[in-house]
Fold:
Amino acid sequence: MSKKRTLLTSCLGVALFSDVGAIKIGFGTDLVGAQDTPAGNSGANQMRQNINITDTVFLPAGTYHATSWEYNAAAASTVQGVTQPVFPFLTIMNGPGNHTVVAFGETIDPDTGVQTGVSFGGDNHTFTIPAGGATVAAGIQNPSRAGVQNSILTDTSFGTTDHANSGNFDEAGSVGATLDSFGHANLSRTYAFAIEVEEGEVTDGDGDGLPASWEEANGLDDSDDGSTGESAAGAKDGPNGALGDPDDDGLDNAGEFERGTDPQNKDSDGDSISDGQEVADGTDPSAEDSDGDGLDDGVENSLGSDPLDSDSDNDGRSDGEEFALGSGINDPNSPGWVRIGFGPELVGQVDTPSDGFSNQMRQNINITDTVFLEAGTYQARAWDYNAAPDATNGATQPVFPFLTIVNGPADHTVLAVGETIDTEPGIQLGVPFGGEESVFTIPEGGATVAAGIQNTNADGVTNSIYTDTSFGSTDHANPANFDEAVLGANLVSFGHGNLTRTYAFSIDVGRGSGEEPLKLAIDRDGDNLVLEWESKPGMFYNLKTTADLSAAPATWDPVEVGGIFDIPSSPPRNVHTIVRPADRERFYRVEEYALPPVSLFFEDFDGGDPGWTTGFDPADGQRLTTWERGDPAGGAATGPSAARSGTNCFGTNIGADYGAESNTWLRTPVMDLTAATGATVSFHQWVDIDEFEDVGGVGDRGSLRVLAADTLTELAVLEASVVGFANDWEQYSVDLPATALGQEVVLEFDFVSDPDESVIASGWYIDDVQVTIPAP
Structure:
């Protein structure tokens, strides 16, 4: 197989720019933003500019344009101007303290935190590098305006920088401006930043405001400004125009371009909410979890929580954490959480022995931050801790949490024991308590409960739970050094004070023995019974009944409702009527579960004729590439060494590289989606397709489309550009849009290669294709 690949190399901190389409100049957003403070510099306006002269790029002679930038901004503080207006710019480096501005972008009010894909903006994004090439650096600057003070202080530990502004108010917002260095070091960094640059001028062939490169990359036609298929003459809202909406998600192409979303995918971030609806709701259509709480926006919508608030019920625990632990994310009192122990606020310190006895501190019971619990049943759900880094004496060796009744300051009875884990250093929140001994009972009259942690009694495990008693009294309750905190064990004190603390910890306890059960309400209505319970979207239910309450739930009899046993949800509540039984006493229970999806279609290509069809675009006269079914190991040494499963798969030239200037397709048999409310396509693919465009801006690529079975017209593009170099089979999965439902369809795998014969690769191979629909 012959491949021509362009590489990025680096030497002495200067990256070399080759024909790769786009390159990043600058450090980027990896470094955490720090609050801007003058750090001893008495000049209030000396840091308006910052030029990164470490992470520069050498550009050969030619024309380029800046497309976007990214940054990491600190939160606002009492220091005026921390996140005041700022704009990006690029300079040619004439020397470490001498720069010439070649491009500058739009001034924005930056948001705090990591921001990526921010449009460079403005009219001064295109620039020319002279003969011989030049080294280019990225910079940012506050504009010169009243009330704007320095806000771009930079910690030079991540690279050398020029604060290139000797006069404090010289602007970088002028092409050709010369900037002199005014150096400062050891300053707190507010921004990490980088600017992305592409070769060539920004072209827009149809003048619709959408760059040609973006339209081509997203399956749009740069020769059509939206006139084709427009709703009315002059509306220019056809699929390819700025006002068009080919994926019918309520967000036009201009909006998709602005937000970096996919105009051919109704749900770009895969959170089950359309891009247009997300914009209307104020959530981020390019991020499946807008508030970063661990729950996708779609899940939050179904649960009724706020996808823009990481803690919807303001109880101090994130929605994702509550959901994982079975707590009500919209109820600050659910399920009655109690935190026992100090918690992770206290910073962990490295464990060092201070008493000369190496094994006396296996246990630590916090007897200051205890909680009195009323009589009843409880469950330890999760715990938090702050562990020091590993040390030679076992600072973070295996440990488990436990709870005790405090009989006295030096006398404890173990109530619950959690799972042993190898602790991670640093603050860890919401760690599952685990194990089978998490449920416990507080006796009549109640009891005071304390949290504890212990190292396991195992070879090679030494003391690792030293505790500084400055945050409360502790019992190292282990006079024999190796007694385990097993359920029911009685632990007595072996006290030590003034010891370096390795862990701060707390354990979360909730009432009951687990997740709150479904509450089934039953009312009598004449000769009928009306059963009602809270219903969750996408779930299914079974009703069961028995006359003997002592019988095991598995032996209860199913109740048929409406002719079915798998009862679908009807949020917010399921209400069902059944005939009242003749028994004087009968008991009912409701069980909740999710039905697995139904497989509508599956093909692994190892049976008989699978009914797939192949063909060519009429313009493909040479026909150098053909979709073929067979064993990829039976031909030349190219592509995958074997099918993903079984013997056979489909591939482009199954035993050889694909050919140049090809256009060939592979289609599935007809699939009936007339009654489907949704459908998901999944398959495994092995991809080795040249991702570099030729001089005409054309590249090799695969695409996945949905066609109407009767007319073979395109209903949707599921994947517009399949490219890249794979090392193994990878699974791909995508939901079909609404436009593909309610009819018979076929899937088309289309492969196109450009005329450039110098860049040829193995091609596109697929196996184990499946289409599933929701359970009826």
Summary: The longest helix spans residues 253-259. The mean pLDDT is 78. The chain is about 5% helix and 35% strand. The two ends are 48 Å apart (CA to CA).
